[in-house]
Specification:
Distance between the termini of chain B: 62 Å
CATH architecture of chain B: 3-Layer(aba) Sandwich
Strand content of chain A: 15-25%
Largest interface: A-B, 93 and 87 residues
Largest sheet of chain B: 12 strands, mixed
Largest sheet of chain A: 5 strands, mixed
Number of helices of chain B: 12
Shape of chain A: globular
CATH topology of chain B: Peroxisomal Thiolase, Chain A, domain 1
CATH architecture of the largest domain in chain A: 3-Layer(aba) Sandwich
Number of strands of chain A: 13
Oligomer: heterodimer
Number of domains of chain A: 2
CATH superfamily of the largest domain in chain A: Thiolase/Chalcone synthase
Radius of gyration of chain B: 21 Å
CATH class of chain B: Alpha Beta
CATH superfamily of chain B: Thiolase/Chalcone synthase
Shape of chain B: globular
Radius of gyration of chain A: 19 Å
Chain lengths: 341, 427
Amino acid sequence: MNVSNICIRGVGAVSSAGWSAAAIHNAVLAGIPLPSKTCARPGDVRNWPCESRFAPASPPEKIARHPRLRRSSAITRYSVAAALEALADAGHDPAAPPPGLGILFVMMNGCVNYTGRFFHEVLENPAQASPMIFPETVFNAPASHLASFLGVDGAVSTILGSPNSIMEALDTAAFWIGSGIVEDCLLIAAEECDWLSAEGLTYYHPNHIASEGAGALLLSACGDGPRVSEMIGPLAYLSWQERCELLPDLAAQTLAKFQGPATLINDSTGIHKIDRAEIAAWSGRPWDSVLSPKYVLGESMGASGALQLVLGTLAVRQTQQPVVISMPGSNTAAYACVLTP
Amino acid sequence: MNTCVSSSTFHTTNLIQSSLVPLPLRQSIAITGAGIVSPLGMGWQANEVALAADRTAFKPVELFDTREFIAKTAGVVDLPAESLFRRIPAHKQTYCDRGTRMLLMAIREALAQSGRQSMDGIDAMVIGTSAGAMPLGESYFEHARHDSGRDPTQLSRAEHYQPQRQMSSIAAEFGWRGPVIIVSNACASGANAIGWAADMIRSGRAKRVLAGGYDAIARLVFAGFDTLRALAPSGIPRPFDAQRDGLALGEGAAVMLLEAEDVRQSAALGNIAGYSTATDLHHLTQPDPAGKAAIRTMTAACTQAGVSPAQIGYINSHGTGTPFNDVAEAAAIAAWAGDAVSKIPVSSTKSAMGHLLGGAGAVEAVICLMALQGQWLPASLNVREIDPAVHFDLVRQFRRASLDYALTNSFGFGGTNATLVLQRRFA
């Protein structure tokens, strides 16, 4: 099955803007970067700037209760909340998810909080490191918890990769649905932030601001909802230079796929050195509006592609016009896609 | 919408879904090349010789300090001292992880076996890993922890810790620009990667895919299994032994070149005939005692392959050597095979090389391929008294056999179960 044959029936999100897809939509449309604060370094003081935008505390009604979630990490809690919102958005009772549901997860860094905590314990005193924490460090722990919560015992998988690996997952989800492996698929990309990942980002550029969250899309073969009518990529690259050189081709291939007024959702961070190739690539046509979620929310790494798709879905619903999403990626390949009503 | 859900609302046993549907397509996927790096040796031949000799490969871990751990040994790969990369500058190889180097060696062997010098014409790579480049993440953590100052060398660690960046190094080595999908379903990652690749070809999304898995021993992972008391204190794993007391970790990589029949250009070594995956909801780290998910994956994979349990000539079990895993898998095999169970030969090659985690499924699939090619069965070693749960034919010594189909199981943390069925290729 081609991705254009599946529709996005529901969306959900957690981000630095709040615990809903609408919160992202409102924040990004406002176009003002959310407040950031210094990311604390445990037990130490940093003599260089390192800002972050964490997700706000969970509203009580967003706290899902299940034995598996008692000790789960932030990334799992974000994912469950986003998934339940997507199911509800599609008209499903989250307490009774549709039969034949599959789950595809995407992440880059994964369960960093528990991983850091566990490794710290290992370095301090391996004999006293907690056996309760280690299983929560595994990349597919969030997918497992969500599957348990929803009772999904079929196809459940986790993909690692760049922020735009969500497109690989989308392609796989379309295959799962088209071949009857699943009837519907929850596609989720999530990330949690800690001081190590926040510092890591600043090595790429001092003004990079780390963020976190989860975006969820409920995909089906039939029903109402925007469709990914075109997927362009992957255009693989082996260096930043190659990336810059192929982005005009990515844009040209994408722009050849549709006509008329459209919205662009780009990957811009607000840091010129990082953004300039992408901005130049997409500047060849007028856009009804240009939305830059990373500029407003921060760099949510593995979750960012899903947050773009959530935002794009809401934009299509609102404008009934095509939305182009630019996902140039950070170190392996570039993608773009077109969402249509 | 109020998404607050009480715990009483969710009883997963009442919500078991039958979402697992075997793919309707029965197209065989040709395996035209395979590469393997394991603690038993580098390459097909070395592993075949070691398996034929019933050799084990456990030794003290020297990659990090193990004095505070209960277990102190593992199946460690002796990587060659010389540079394995030919096109990447030496300074950039510093951050190529051990696991990546093993994967590179396995890819080279798979390509060579299929008569290729390059990755030209390969549509995609699908690679499974559980820990990725964890040692680089550990190094990043330790540097950050010891020095609060800004350290520019941290950029390389942060960058190369990302598994996709490690795969990019391999792509650069071959000058290849194609999609790389990294599957991370814990210890089922490698099997899932091969299954996904086969699915890509069956569905027409690709004609030729390199697929496999890898993992290198990392301190955090070793410590994790040690704290769980999952590692055998003696360092000797005894899968399906009545007194088994845990697994041994290992490391390695394996890769298969899978091709659609209409584009195959070299002789096939075998076929991927069936694949299925399912999720065990019982517990994050413990299998359902009856192995319900394993029963479903074995059934579905055999349905796709068009074979009955009686036609399976060998099962390379997940067989970790932990008390919970082996009894659950034995129960699942008995339930799935029915009356045929006593005639089905089963072994766990983890008894010889340890548990290769994300690499296990791929390495064990290649061992199945070797068994089909060579018409032999590798052994479950170190068994003193067979567990009463075992009703199958536990292979305790290397033996010659006649087999057309082999099945391999992989189960992972998080409940991911995967089964692959491989078919012998007739001349």
